[in-house]
């Protein structure tokens, strides 16, 4: 991954959200900008929003499940786990709120959501997609699958 390009995109995209949310917003802005030239980008945009919402929900469920497992097995590290779970829950809720606002936006209003549509070109969009895909659990454990 080209971390320099990712850092450049993050600097160009304004916003106080976390890194992942900024990249998601930049990718959605790129897709919105180019929907006139390629109608399939509308479906790509909907797919990404749905997938990110699902991933956020799964992350929240895993955090709750791991907290319950820790509660039943061991009580010494409970305070750290609760804090970590609380942070995960807070981050997940902010991401869900962001995605809900994207879902509620009508296609005619996409242009009002654009921050700096000229900051992301095709190559940057491909890089963002690869970076976000590398953050998914399957991509992170792909070497383990290959080894087995």
TrEMBL record:
GO process annotations (BP): brain development; chromatin looping; digestive tract development; embryonic viscerocranium morphogenesis; establishment of mitotic sister chromatid cohesion; establishment of protein localization to chromatin; heart morphogenesis; regulation of gene expression
GO molecular function, one term: chromatin binding
UniProt cross-references to InterPro entries, sorted A to Z: Scc2/Nipped-B
Basic and acidic residues composition-biased segments: 63-83
GO CC annotation, single: Scc2-Scc4 cohesin loading complex
Domain of life: Eukaryota
UniProt-recorded name of the protein: NIPBL protein
Region (Disordered), start-end ranges: 63-84
């Amino acid at each position: 991954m080209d971390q320099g390009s990712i850092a450049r995109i993050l600097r160009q995209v304004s916003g106080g959200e976390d890194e992942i949310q900024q990249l998601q917003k930049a990718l959605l802005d790129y897709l919105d900008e180019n929907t006139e030239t390629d109608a399939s980008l509308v479906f790509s945009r909907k797919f990404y929003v749905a997938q990110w919402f699902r991933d956020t929900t799964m992350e929240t469920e895993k955090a709750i499940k791991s907290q319950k497992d820790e509660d039943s097995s061991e009580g010494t590290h409970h305070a750290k786990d609760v804090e970590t779970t609380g942070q995960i829950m807070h981050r997940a809720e902010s991401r869900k709120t962001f995605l809900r606002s994207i879902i509620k936006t009508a296609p005619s209003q996409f242009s009002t959501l654009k921050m700096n549509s000229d900051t992301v070109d095709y190559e940057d969009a491909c890089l963002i997609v690869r970076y976000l895909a590398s953050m998914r659990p399957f991509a992170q454990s792909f070497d383990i699958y290959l080894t087995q």
